[in-house]
Amino acid sequence: MTPDHSAEPSFPREKIDRLTRPLARFMHVEAASGVVLLVAAIAAFVIANSPLADSFLGIWKTRLSFGLGGFQMDHTLKHWVSDGLMAIFFFVVGLEVKREIVLGQLRDIRQAALPIAAALGGMVIPAGVYLALQWGEPASRGWGIPMATDIAFVVGCMAVLGSRVPSSLRVLLLSLAIADDIGAILVIAIGYTAGLNLSALLLAAVGLSIVVLMKWAGVRSLAAYTLVGVLVWVAFHESGVHATIAGVILGLLTPTERWVSESVLSGIVSRAREVWQGEGGERAKSLRQVQTAARESLSPLERLEDGIHPWSAFLIMPVFALANAGVAFEGSLVTDPVSVAVAAGLVLGKPLGIVLFSFIGVRFRLATLPEGVNWSILAAGACLAGIGFTMSLFIAGLALEGPALEAAKMGTLGGSVVSGIIGMALLVRLLRPSPTAGDGSRSGSPRQADVPSTPLPG
């Protein structure tokens, strides 16, 4: 007897699912990609300190040219990675920022107050620590290096700790990192922009206006948007504003609204059932309608983030790490003033800034600590936020060159490792499994007594 599939129950969908499901997918990808990113970084460092160093580092100096008519782009492979592939990474960052602002924790100013305050402190204080140690020196231009947090590594560290980490801390650190990304984007756009080519900048503005006009007109073709997006990227590349900013802006312009509602999708599927037993063009037409309706029942932002985010996490970021984490180890680099300044900004400045600005926000009743997070746990999470890596290496490449750049990379690698170790050790100590929780203790569930929302000190 053939089962009646039409009678099978379906899971109800709630409004909160629009936030939690993308967030769960995001956290899963970031946790796994953190491992791949770590392997790539270690590989780059090991090879750069092996007999293969010259050949390996020489690969990234290979020149690749692209031309069309009288227009020519001739750059090293490393440049194409940093300005080309990383534009896709920044496009995904733009999508993530848009999702958090429209659907996530940053959409509500009261909920967003704490991560925004924490992110602000986590940028201002590390930059201040760096400048205090490099004031008046040529490398003072690298003040933006210790300001960023690497989401993949932070989420990966929390994944290692498992369910003992309160979900509220995961969401807080993720929202903090997203707000941190916004700050890093502004730093790149404002602090590390070369002389402007106004003609190219105007062309970029025209391209972005075309994207807005296409959205308004209801253009759904991904190919059309991709073509205009590439032109916008080229214009930004030639304008003096870093080309990755094009990716961020295009990500922020991506719609979060679905074209096909669930009721319309249901109606199209019901109609298709009636004709699927037939033959010829009517059946084929109904199948095409179902295919289109199913695709368009997801917003463009959801489709693009689901499709591109894994490529960004598992290919683009590891390739960037291979191209930039290959530092030839020298004892003098560890004690170089630039290296020390970067490491101090990450290890000391990050947690100090996050906790200090969070305390100010809570003290003046602008924000509240989330349930399950006390000041000790927040401080431990803030130490994890000192893992800069991807964005720190990126900004270092924009700000410095020569020996100062190598020292900044060493400081970024060393500071990120120390921050990760300290943060993990503190969280393990603070979030011990309960000895009375039975089987739950083996799964890593925290004791309630370990994670209360405590009042402010003093």
How helix-rich are the residues, as a percent range? Answer: 55-70%
Shape category: globular
Strands in their spatial order, largest beta sheet: 1-2
CATH superfamily of the largest domain: Na+/H+ antiporter like domain
CATH class of the largest domain: Mainly Alpha
What is the residue-mean pLDDT, rounded to a whole number?
A: 83
Order of helices and strands: HHEEHHHHHHHHHHHHHHHH
CA-atom Rg in angstroms:
24 Å
Count of individual domains = 2
Residue share in β-strands: under 5%
Structural class: mainly alpha
The number of helices is 18
CATH topology name of the largest domain, in short, is Na+/H+ antiporter like fold
Kindly describe this structure.
It is a single chain. This protein is mainly alpha-helical. The chain has two domains: about 290 residues, Na+/H+ antiporter like fold, CATH 1.20.1530; about 40 residues, no CATH class. About 70% of the residues lie in helices and about 5% in strands. The chain contains 18 helices and two strands. A two-stranded antiparallel sheet has the order 1-2. Strand 1 and strand 2 form a beta hairpin. The radius of gyration is 24 Å and the shape is globular. It starts with 16 loop residues before the first helix and ends in a 16-residue tail after the last helix. The N terminus and C terminus are likely disordered.
